[in-house]
């Protein structure tokens, strides 16, 4: 889920927010997986490559509306590919017969993702100082095309996924999948877990995008600092994935997710001390804080998805994994949109603008308090996942 830092907006721009990944002074970017910019980092759909190539080839006078359209096209393809990727990982992981190996494939996928993200951010940070923006877009588009053709060349039979029974039509296959999804969602341990996980994003008015604007425009930190922050975050994500697979895989999911939620809230409170300049007075430079703490916060949002997807893979009836994961990703995407608009409302209510950050500390405290709210119904998450057979 690594991606290069977006260009900072103009200092004169007013408080605004388009999504929780927007680098405007009013909201947040992460992680997440998310759901989001994270998806845009690893698409296998050609639509993403087409959108970047269009930006490269079309004249610089292209309107904001057309630019937005191409970005939406890229994110659409990336989102579809991300859902398919999560479903494949979940279904393939369910083929492992040994309970001790449960969640191992998800951990490996997260480790691979984090290592690629760290390398990509590092190379992107170097290249952005050497190449023009158009050249960067072109290289990224070519990499996406290479990834797409490589993915297409992999035979589906090598994934050892369950075979479809008979030669059923697409419409009957869709009806069957919807029926299986309905059966799975009737299980309280599945439906309540999905509601909790989605709500853990939706109820939080994220302000990390505001922090991005504050760091780059108000504190005038070099963009390379933001890039190194993402590299550090991806490295931390890889380390946590290894630690989870080795040490915490057998820890109850409720305990792991609750601890992560509390840790995220504590890092948000730490941002209050950063904005007040307390760390600066202690001798910790702004650059060091941003690299370490901002990177950790972003990585935690992404890492939270690992124990939850492992839990879902354990709870899902056999054969329903792909449908349930697709539903989960859709619910998560909606939750992130809600979170983004709540961030807009919070930033506007606190009077945060491109030149006035006096309400930022209180806004961050409200954000941290909202992050702790999901702990009130954490009992909806089962302590352990247990594989079940699909109901007929």
Task: Lay out the secondary structure.
Layout: H1 37-41, H2 46-57, H3 64-94, H4 104-127, H5 133-153, H6 170-185, H7 188-202, H8 208-218, H9 223-248, H10 253-275, H11 278-281, H12 286-303, H13 305-315, H14 321-349, H15 360-372
Helix pairs in contact: 2-3, 2-5, 3-4, 3-13, 3-14, 4-9, 7-14, 9-12, 10-12, 10-15
Commentary on this structure:
The structure is a single chain. By secondary structure, this protein is mainly α. The chain has a single domain (37-153, 174-380), classed as Growth Hormone, Chain: A (Up-down Bundle), CATH 1.20.1250. It has 15 helices and no strands. Helix 2 (46-57) runs antiparallel to helix 5, helix 3 packs across helix 14 and helix 4 runs antiparallel to helix 9 (223-248). The longest helix has 31 residues, at 64-94. It is globular. Mean pLDDT is 78; it is low at 1-43 and 387-392. It is found in: Membrane. This is Probable folate-biopterin transporter 7 isoform X2. One of its GO terms (cellular component) is membrane. Keywords: Membrane, Transmembrane, Transmembrane helix, Transport. The chain crosses the membrane at residues 49-73, 108-130, 136-154, 194-214, 226-244, 256-275, 287-312, 324-351, 357-380.
What fraction of the residues are assigned to beta strands by DSSP? Answer: under 5%
Number of beta strands: 0
Structural class computed from helices and strand pairing: mainly alpha
Gyration radius, in Å: 21 Å
Biggest beta sheet summary: none
**Percent helix range:** 55-70%
Q: Could you spell the SSE succession in H and E letters?
A: HHHHHHHHHHHHHHH
The stretches of 5 or more residues where confidence is low (pLDDT under 50) are: 1-43, 387-392
At the first level of CATH, the class is Mainly Alpha
Q: What would the average pLDDT be, to the nearest integer?
A: 78
Give the termini distance in whole angstroms.
38 Å
Total number of helices: 15
Please, how many domains? 1
The CATH superfamily turns out to be: MFS general substrate transporter like domains
Which overall shape is indicated by the principal axes computed on the Cα atoms?
A: globular
CATH overall fold name: Growth Hormone, Chain: A
- CATH-derived architecture: Up-down Bundle
Biased composition (Low complexity): 11-44
Protein name: Probable folate-biopterin transporter 7 isoform X2
Region (Disordered): 1-44
Organism: Elaeis guineensis var. tenera
């Amino acid at each position: 889920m690594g991606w290069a830092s977006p260009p900072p907006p103009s200092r004169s721009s007013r408080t605004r927010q388009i999504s929780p990944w927007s680098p405007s002074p009013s909201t947040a970017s992460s992680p997440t997986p998310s759901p989001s910019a994270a998806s845009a980092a690893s698409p296998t759909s050609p639509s993403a490559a087409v959108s970047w190539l269009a930006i490269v080839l079309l004249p610089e006078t292209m309107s904001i509306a057309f630019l937005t359209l191409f970005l939406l096209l890229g994110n659409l393809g990336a989102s579809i590919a991300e859902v398919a990727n999560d479903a494949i990982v979940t279904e393939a992981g369910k083929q492992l017969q040994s309970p001790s190996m449960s969640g191992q494939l998800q951990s490996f996928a997260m480790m691979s993702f984090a290592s690629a993200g760290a390398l990509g951010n590092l190379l992107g940070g170097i290249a952005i100082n050497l190449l023009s923006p158009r050249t960067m877009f072109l290289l990224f588009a070519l990499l996406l095309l290479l990834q797409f053709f490589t993915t297409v060349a992999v035979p589906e039979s090598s994934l050892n996924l369950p075979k479809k029974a008979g030669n059923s039509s697409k419409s009957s296959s869709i009806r069957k999948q919807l029926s299986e999804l309905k059966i799975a969602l009737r299980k309280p341990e599945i439906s309540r877990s999905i509601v909790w996980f989605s709500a853990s994003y939706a109820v939080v008015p994220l302000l990390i995008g505001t922090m991005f604007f504050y760091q780059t425009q108000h504190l005038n930190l070099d963009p390379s600092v933001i890039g190194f922050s993402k590299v550090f975050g991806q490295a931390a994500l890889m380390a946590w994935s290894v630690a989870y697979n080795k040490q915490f895989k057998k820890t109850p999911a409720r305990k792991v997710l609750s601890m992560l939620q509390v840790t995220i809230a504590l890092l948000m409170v730490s941002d209050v001390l950063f904005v007040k300049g307390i760390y600066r007075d202690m001798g910790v430079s702004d650059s060091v804080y941003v690299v370490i703490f901002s990177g950790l916060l972003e990585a935690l949002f992404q890492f939270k998805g690992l124990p939850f997807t492992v839990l879902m893979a354990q709870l899902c009836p056999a054969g329903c994994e792909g449908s349930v994961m697709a539903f989960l990703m859709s619910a998560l995407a909606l939750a992130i949109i809600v979170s983004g608009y709540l961030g807009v409302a919070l930033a506007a209510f606190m009077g945060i603008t491109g030149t006035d950050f006096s309400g930022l500390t209180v806004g961050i405290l409200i954000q941290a308090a909202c992050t702790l709210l999901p702990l009130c119904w954490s009992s909806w998450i089962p302590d352990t996942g247990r594989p079940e057979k699909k109901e007929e």
